[in-house]
Specification:
Elements: E1 15-21, E2 23-24, E3 27-28, E4 35-42, E5 48-54, H1 56-66, E6 79-82, E7 86-91, E8 95-97, E9 99-100, H2 112-116, E10 120-122, E11 126-131, E12 134-139, E13 151-153, H3 181-191, E14 196-197, H4 212-221, E15 236-240, H5 241-245
Parallel strand pairs: 9-14
Antiparallel strand pairs: 1-4, 2-3, 4-5, 6-7, 7-11, 8-10, 11-12, 13-15
Length: about 250
Amino acid sequence: MEVMVPNEMRFRLDGAILFYRRWSEYGYSYSAHHVAALLHKVNENGSLAPGRALDMKALEYFFRTSNGADKLKFQDSKILARSYDSIVWYEKSRLAPIYFQIDRKNEPKRTILNKLSGRQVMWPPLLFMIANGTLCCRALKSNRRPTLKTKLYIAPLTHINETDGTVCLPAGIRIYRRNSLEENMSMVSELFYQGKFGHATHSMRQIEHPGGHDGFWVEYLKKKKHDRFPIELLKSANQTLGELLK
């Protein structure tokens, strides 16, 4: 780490963070579970005092404060929870186009969605979570700010795992670890709705409609007026927001 300081400033070693990695007869273990970080104060004679274990949050604090990044920041009202590597927020129902890109060769019976692609629809309220670089998505039945007891529903979209809500990112969306969680949140909030949904996933029964995913979207896209999403058709994910946060 390169630090630029004025020439007249003097520094004295005050402490050191040392990383200890598990060692065995086979060499070092490179598992993240086998690494410990200890903060050692420096004695008057320059030797290191006994160390104090640091967790990830403490390490993040040291690195953030070292470059002045630990400042008060305004939090968007959409944010429901945040940790050093995760953020959860929700998006209210919105009127926006939805795009489909079905492979004509592999799924010829589904290509009717291509003809309806780009039409304006009212999307359901959605809840997103970025955790350890992975994006998850669930649907909500209300635009009200969710509470820990709010029930979650399966997002009626392809590219989303029905069981755990993980998203196979549409083209153009990437979660960059070098960006802040808020920057990635803003990117998803804008680009997710511009992504192209395509290949069939899992049961394709993500919504309570006789025709499943495709039947619902064909019928819904053919409607002339979209003033609300039929939230009564959303399928329960058997999970609350509080359970997701655990």
